[in-house]
Structures are given as structure tokens and as C-alpha cells.
């Protein structure tokens, strides 16, 4: 190990002109070292750097292409949606117009139906009134007939005596007997 440290120590003592050694002047050696390092990096790293840049460029182009395809798809869907919207608006207008005409038609139908129903009810009312009048007239007739019959029976009973009564019964039996013979 002593030989290795001696060799480094002996390098420091070498003369500067025409020989190889370490230059300890930082200002003089820095640009040279940097240019050597940059040259080596450019020489050896040029392929890697160009590959990285090419890959990045391809990814950016693919992203742009995908974005354009997505944009085209979105524009197409937007146009379809606009077409559907126009169609739906037209249908809505037709429904609105048809709805108004349907409402008017239903309104007229309802008015006509109500008018017919009112006419029928008026006819039923008139028939009911006529029926009740006929019934009242028939009841009055029956009462008048019953009263007339009772009056006639009362008059007959007061005027009839037994002999007249027997003659009337015999005459009626004779009439019924003659009717029986005719029917046989």
C-alpha cells in the first residue's frame, strides 16, 4: 500500500510541462472536463436520446390521432343527437297541433253528448209527466166510476125489491145459458 500512496504523492511532484498529471487549477480544467463529458455524452447518448425523443414523438402523435378520432366520433354523435332533436321537435309540434285539434274534437263531442243527454232527460221528464198525468186521470176515473157504481148500486138496492131482483137474476141466467148453448 505504501507504493500506491507513494505513486500518488510522486505524481503531485511531477513537472507540469510535457508530462501527464493532475491539474489542480479548477478554472482552467472545468471547461475542458465539461467539454469532454458533453462530447462523450453526445457520442454515446445520441442514440438513446434520439430513441427517447422518437418514442415521445410517437406517443404524442398517437395521442393526437386518438384525440382526433374521439373528436370525429363526438362530432358525429353530436350531429346524430341534433338530428334526433330536430325530429323530436317536429314530432312534438305535430303532437301539439294534433293535441289541440284532438282537444277541440273532444270538446265538441262532449258538448254534443251533453246536449243529447239533456234532450233525452227532457224527453224522459216529459214522458214521466205524461205518465203521471195519465195515472192521475185513471185514478180519478176509477174513483168516479167507483162512486158512480156505488151510487148506482145504492139506487138499485133502494129501488129493487125482491121480485124485481129475482127477475133480473133469472134473465141473466137465461142469457148465460143461451151463450153456453151457442158456444157448445
TrEMBL record:
Membrane topology of the entry: Single-pass membrane protein
Complexes and interactors: F-type ATPases have 2 components, F(1) - the catalytic core - and F(0) - the membrane proton channel. F(1) has five subunits: alpha(3), beta(3), gamma(1), delta(1), epsilon(1). F(0) has four main subunits: a(1), b(1), b'(1) and c(10-14). The alpha and beta chains form an alternating ring which encloses part of the gamma chain. F(1) is attached to F(0) by a central stalk formed by the gamma and epsilon chains, while a peripheral stalk is formed by the delta, b and b' chains.
Coiled coil region boundaries: 64-98
A GO molecular function held by the record: proton-transporting ATP synthase activity, rotational mechanism
CDD domains found in the cross-reference section: ATP-synt_Fo_b
PANTHER family: ATP SYNTHASE SUBUNIT B, CHLOROPLASTIC
UniProt keyword Coiled coil present: yes
Note: In plastids the F-type ATPase is also known as CF(1)CF(0).
Transmembrane segments: 32-49
Its biological purpose: Component of the F(0) channel, it forms part of the peripheral stalk, linking F(1) to F(0). F(1)F(0) ATP synthase produces ATP from ADP in the presence of a proton or sodium gradient. F-type ATPases consist of two structural domains, F(1) containing the extramembraneous catalytic core and F(0) containing the membrane proton channel, linked together by a central stalk and a peripheral stalk. During catalysis, ATP synthesis in the catalytic domain of F(1) is coupled via a rotary mechanism of the central stalk subunits to proton translocation.
Keyword DNA repair carried by entry: no
Family indicated by similarity: Belongs to the ATPase B chain family.
InterPro entries associated with the record: ATP_synth_b/b'su_bac/chlpt
One protein family per Pfam: ATP-synt_B
Domain of life: Eukaryota
Gene Ontology cellular component annotations, sorted alphabetically: chloroplast thylakoid membrane; proton-transporting ATP synthase complex
Subcellular location as annotated: Membrane; Plastid, Chloroplast thylakoid membrane
Name by which UniProt lists this protein: ATP synthase subunit b, chloroplastic
Primary location: membrane
Keywords in alphabetical order: ATP synthesis, CF(0), Chloroplast, Coiled coil, Hydrogen ion transport, Ion transport, Membrane, Plastid, Thylakoid, Transmembrane, Transmembrane helix, Transport
